Amino acid sequence: MRYEDFYRASIDTPEAFWADQAKAIDWHRQPDTILDDSNPPFRRWFVGGETNLCHNAVDRHLAERADQLALVAISSETGLTREISYRELHREVNTFAAILRSLDVERGDRVVIYMPNVAEAVFAMLACARIGAVHSVVFGGFAAHNLALRIDDARPKLLIAADAGKRGGKVIPYQPLIDDACRQAQHPPPRVLIVDRGLDTNRRSVPGRDLDYATLRAQHDGTQVPVQWLESNEPSYLLYTSGTTGKPKGVQRDVGGYAVAMALSMWAIYDVRAGQVMFSTSDVGWAVGHSYNVYGPLIAGATSILYEGLPTNPDPGIWWQICAKYGVRTMFSSPTGIRVLKKQEASWLTRHDLSALQWLFLAGEPLDEPTATWISQGLRKPVIDNYWQTETGWPVLTLMPGLDLKPVKFGSPGLPSPGYNTRVIDEATGADAKPGEKGVLVIVPPLPPGCMSTVYNDDRRFVASYFSHFRQLLYSSLDWAVRDADGYTFILGRTDDVINVAGHRLGTREIEESVSTHPAVAEAAVVGVHDELKGQVPIVFATLKHAGADTAPALAMAMQQRVVDLLGGVARPARVYIVGALPKTRSGKLLRRSLQALAEARDPGDLSTLDDPNALEEITRILTRGP
Ligand code: ATP
Ligand code: MG
């Protein structure tokens, strides 16, 4: 099938298109109405239909693939690998669901899951889905404050956690974080179920509150818990946005629409079908983890690989070793992950048999051309950039090799996914930007199945945050973009990252890309700072691949020259700072907001999602000293 025809059908006749896609999942009751769009921007897909995510991800595969691997959970931190078949997954999930029921968790109740990237996190998610409880996974690397914020918003009946995580060989005990979060929260969960991995030997549980998973598992092992059939638009889960731009919002997802979107995206975009293997390096705590470590691959009847550990441990070939061992067909990672590998020898990419590997998908942040070229040449595999958001749950812009692969253009995530009526518009007039003209990326409602239904408990915030930027009712997360004559969209950064130099609007992304073409540069961050004369000027923070022979001033000049050569004198960075690390969120996103604030000697704001505080401290020091 041609991409063009498939996409056109999804926009011109959405009800017929999605009714057809809905056949890919099991329904307990068929929907009465495919789309109810009577109350925009809220829309309801598959109204009256009854289904269940756990049934579609687990039970329905038992007939044909009970002994096939469903989940492989590999930890290079503990050295353990767990290979779990669909039959075993079914048993674990039923047992977990029985535990939830024994703790009075009911349909519609929220359950917060605060876990490292281990199999039990997946069991817990699916067990919630099975009984109609609404899970809210909080990334295990978040601090107590983040956890408390999310607890107070979700008000869970239960918190499920592990005794500890492990990162780079270091044990990170969770109990102090849980205790602290429960103290900070206005609505602490009455019960905490602890999955004891035996990592934190000094742990002291709180009597009356904390429960031991292994004990309860032994009590309930083998119990069958019937699937709770849910109306398609009931909530399945909450997932808080990563918080690059302010207070996290509880993205609420539905049941039926999400299942259908997962099924479609697995074959059409990621080119993975039942029996094949997908490896996403994400943590289950992120949107990618939810969709492409858990629900997508399992709904498709594929094998999903979950990885706990650094990409460089025990050696920088670990990801490719996993690909070779399990015959991974599609791999999914982030540009940040690849940049970590880029600091290592390229020969690590070719030491394992990657004949099964067809595609490497990268998402989450701009994919700069040097990184894309390095990895695709190193692996000799196609690299596909895909653009989406926690809110959308699956790609908005991508190429679709499962359908027919259009040419890859580095720097662009490609073409709109089915159901996404995307446009690039002029911010002021709302008119379509011409090819080559910059504008804001918007989606004309209704949003397709799989996208968020609302902000949890806050319909007004849903409308205000996403649909109130323009005169017309258009969805936008305010990314700045440009479309070429072939319809490929290039993302230039967030609109609040646009730098206005003497009336010229420059995307931070364009400047970062130019700086990154310098061979010594590992990664660059560009922010605009106030300037008396020009309004704003760009400044650069760059990390280097190796501490090289060139002196910092010579390197800085060379980087400035690159920008002048590629973008013109107007984009010339006023200053270049060479730093050891860039400040990022735990999901690997650059905290540009904070960088800009520091550079303008303002308060860096909410740093609760910051990964490594040392990065900001170093930058503060350098800024006060000068480049
Ligand atoms: P928050 O919305 O809480 O401030 P966030 O936007 O960083 O945080 P995510 O939903 O994880 O949270 O990220 C989505 C954003 O990431 C997009 O809006 C876009 O700015 C950026 N992004 C994602 N994928 C790509 C990509 N392939 N190319 C360029 N930018 C991307
Ligand atoms: Mg966002």
From TrEMBL:
Pfam families assigned: ACAS_N, AMP-binding, AMP-binding_C
Organism: Chiayiivirga flava
SUPFAM superfamilies xref list: Acetyl-CoA synthetase-like (SSF56801)
GO MF entry, a single one: propionate-CoA ligase activity
One Gene Ontology biological process: propionate catabolic process, 2-methylcitrate cycle
Sequence ranges assigned to domain Acetyl-coenzyme A synthetase N-terminal in this UniProt record: 3-57
Keyword Ubl conjugation: no
Family named by the database record: Belongs to the ATP-dependent AMP-binding enzyme family.
Keywords annotated in UniProt: ATP-binding, Ligase, Nucleotide-binding
Protein name per Swiss-Prot or TrEMBL: Propionate--CoA ligase
Domain AMP-dependent synthetase/ligase residues, every copy: 59-443
